Batch of 2 targets.
Target 1
Amino acid sequence: MHPAMYKLKSEGRMPNEFYSPEILSSSYITRHVFNLYNDIRAKNNQLGVEYRLAAKNPRNKINQADSLEIILTDQFNKDSTLLKQSGITTIDGEKYLYYSRPFLRVEQGCLKCHGRKDEAPKALQEYYHWEGGYNLKIGEITAIEILKTPIKAEYNTMWIIGLIIFVIASLLITLIILHANLSKRKNIIQSQNIEIEKNLTKLKETQNQLVQSEKMASLGVLTAGISHEINNPLNFINGAYLGLDNFFSKKEPQLREDVKVLLRGMETGIERVTTIVQGLDHFSRDTSDFNEPCDLHQIIDNCLLMLRNLYKDTITIEKHYTHDPLIINGNDGKLHQVFMNIITNAIQAIEDKGTIKIISKKEKHLISICIEDNGCGIEKELLPKVIEPFYTSKQPGEGTGLGLSISYNIIQDHKGTLDVESEFDNWTRVRITFKTKNDDR
Ligand code: HEC
């Protein structure tokens, strides 16, 4: 086509700018089509594919065959049944996969332009004035088409492995962050739990004290009833006793001597019942008043009287009272409860025989009362626990473990102190102190 175009051009039938040798070159077009194709592949991260039309003796220098292409061309010429050759080759240290097939065989018609140079069309001779592309022989395969692409499959797998590692790593990091967050929350929840537990214990403690004081209150109502009921017949008996005594003194002084012992017995009995009833009255008093005058000696004596049954002959009570009257402002009923508790504990600490010493002192602005028993004592480790609510050293069922805790709180309400000292297997001493009136509030 080149010569035809040259002819048209020289005759002035075709404008100069219409002629372009490139558009008449199939190898040029194919190369450019492949360039476009490779642009698209590159955008999709695919490796390029190189297309070449390679000739041993090309007209266009760009088509010059390299050593592999020469070998391949020779091979196609040697074996005419060969339709394709493919394999792996190394160029500049990189591996390429190639696929080649023979280009057209030279026929008679080809020689018009590819035969002897001086026989080729004039214009062609002028344009391709060098030797390449001439003197082709009929039946020969002068060129091959070859596709080459670098082998980078292993890089692809590396890529995939890298991606997997990246995904796993980011998952791990997310997990670690999540875990850290979770454990932070767990910590918060834990401390909240501790807080709640503390509050719950406090609540239980107060609730139990409430129950206990409720019990004491109902006990108070009961004892008030009992003491009232006993007081009535006691008055009859007392009246009758006085009448009898009067009768014998005035009318039968002789006989009186004989029944004197009996009369004394009656008198003592009546006195005792009277004190018991009066003692009961103290327990039944139900007020929240903290301003009653409370005689501590009398309170302790009342308690001892009530507890007589518990200690009777086995326990000696040693009272070392100060001669000063011990009167403080407080709640009489509640203080009865305190000493009742402490003395009961002392009695229960003594298994067989023993002594309970009660020592009261008054120094300047301080009143102190010590109640000391030589019973079983408290183990050193347990000592700080004895004023905790629910702590008990007694057998299950014998004590609620609230006694000392309640006593502790009552004494605190009186602005006093309660301490417990003990030596295991030897003794226990409960010391209660109050500030005297002058100092109070
Ligand atoms: C009318 C003239 C003409 C005829 C006929 C012709 N060719 Fe060409 N051929 C050319 C020109 C011109 C080029 C160079 C094109 C270029 O610049 O790439 C060429 C290029 C080639 C090339 C590319 C390698 C090189 O030398 O640059 C091959 C191979 C080729 N021809 C083979 C043939 C065969 C085989 C036939 C017959 C079937 C044939 N040609 C017929 C004009 C012709």
Target 2
Amino acid sequence: MRGRLWRLSMKRYLVATAIVCAVILSVFTGVRQESRGQDAGLADTTSGTSSPVFVTEIPDGYRDWRLISVAREEGSLDDIRGVLGNDIAIQAYRNGVQAFPDGAMIARLAWSYVSSEENNKAFGRSQSFVAGMPKNGVQFMVKDSKKYAATGGWGYGQFNEGVSAGEEALVTCFGCHERGAARDFVFTRYAR
Ligand code: HEC
């Protein structure tokens, strides 16, 4: 009688142990699978084998952003340009923040640089140059330190008559903007 009881409780003990082991094992393999998934995700963005991510859509309402400054380029570009920033970018400029926060966006618009007969008449001499037709596309820099980690936290975009210039064209952007690394890859200074 006592022997049977002992055997019965021993059996229960073994079953319980087996269940606990199975639970521990399944939790353990689950965690391992999860962390393997994370590793794979990380390898995707840091291995350099995956293609970089660029700005593929024109940010909404960019034409209403505020003025940062203007510039004139000669040579093959031969244009006059305006650089605009969204609220986050403008705030960072005005606060003198060195590294732009995520969400900051900067647009570079450009137009042909033309002499204005109308203005020259008003001045009574030839001296006036203004913006003509849009030229050299519209360019954007969008800050997202995670998404664009491979290119200094900035995504680059170029649109010619509303059409994305494509990724191959965008590889050059960071190559040059890298020279402005000391000021978070942004060349234009805020014109007071
Ligand atoms: C050879 C160097 C060079 C290349 C290549 C270049 N940029 Fe720039 N970029 C500049 C300089 C210098 C300025 C500031 C003066 C100006 O606007 O002309 C500028 C200005 C800008 C600005 C305004 C913010 C700032 O940094 O001053 C944006 C936005 C921009 N570039 C985007 C792009 C994009 C997108 C590409 C790629 C399609 C690109 N740039 C390629 C040199 C370059």
